[in-house]
Amino acid sequence: MPSRSLTEPGKHADGEVPGLYLEVRASSKVVKSPSKSWRLKYRLHGKENRFSIGAYPDIGLKEARDIARGACRDVANHIAPLKAKTAKTAKIETQLLNEERTFGYVAEHWLAFKSAELVTKSIAGFRGALNNHILPAIGKKPVSEIKLEHITTIITELRRQRTIAMARRVRPIIRAILGFAEGRGWVERNVAVSNIEELKIRHVVTSNPAIERPADLGRFLLRLDDCSNGSVATAMRLLVMLSIDMINRSRRTF
Fold it and tell me: Transmembrane segments in this chain: where (predicted)?
């Protein structure tokens, strides 16, 4: 069908796809050239219907035939082409929205929501945990695709680094953000609400070498010089001095 050269008003059948035709409407005072639209005539449940595919030349002959064939398959399955088209469009739109709603996107909305009830210092703490430990791992992932193993991977890595305090902090933050998403229908369920073994953060007891020789005490005092917390370093030096003083007093007594 030479659709480009068709200017005579009327319905011009395609001849290849049954029911497909190009409808040409005469020009008017407003529209100087004839308008052309692809349509498909079909029967469903005993009734004749029309399916509007789109305007020519926005939709060419090949694309019109492909769309018409897809519509014919829908009709064969007792589905109206318009409903099928609407369902497909809705599915695509939902998919695009899910891709836009990354964990990082939801986290920003959650922080904005929490900022109304929390002090600035708390928000800064949440943001620090997010930027340093959570977002690098799952920030760009659609929130609807977050699984339990993503969370356990983050926590396992923090446990491996022996940053147990941060591991304890990370889980409730992720749980709160996913709960925020669940409340808005962006995820079906909050996967961080779980009591599995991998998410349980236990206190890890670490032992330091005992000070048994004068050389050990010297190394310990040198390490105190590098301590960034001056108050802690001063307190530890006082404890050492008190211990030495008590030892000397006991020796003088005996």
Answer: none
* Model pLDDT for residues 82-141, shown as the tens digit of each residue: 765 655 555 655 565 556 789 999 999 899 888 878 788 888 889 999 999 999 999 999
**Strands (DSSP E) found in the chain:** 10-13, 20-25, 35-44, 47-56
32-87 pLDDT per residue, tens: 667 889 999 999 888 999 998 888 888 888 888 988 998 898 888 888 887 656 55
Q: How far apart (Å, rounded) are the C-alpha atoms in residues 161 and 167? A: 10
Token digits for 155? 């926590």
Token readout for 85 is 């088209």
The domain locations on the chain are: 10-84, 100-199
Superfamily in which the 100-199 domain is placed by CATH: Tyrosine recombinase, N-terminal domain (1.10.150.130)
Count other Cβ atoms within 10 Å, centred on residue 171. 19
Could you name the CATH architecture of 10-84?
2-Layer Sandwich (3.30)
pTM here?
Answer: 0.45
> Is the link from the previous residue into 2 a cis peptide, with omega within 30 of 0?
no
**Locate tokens 């006082």: which residue?**
238
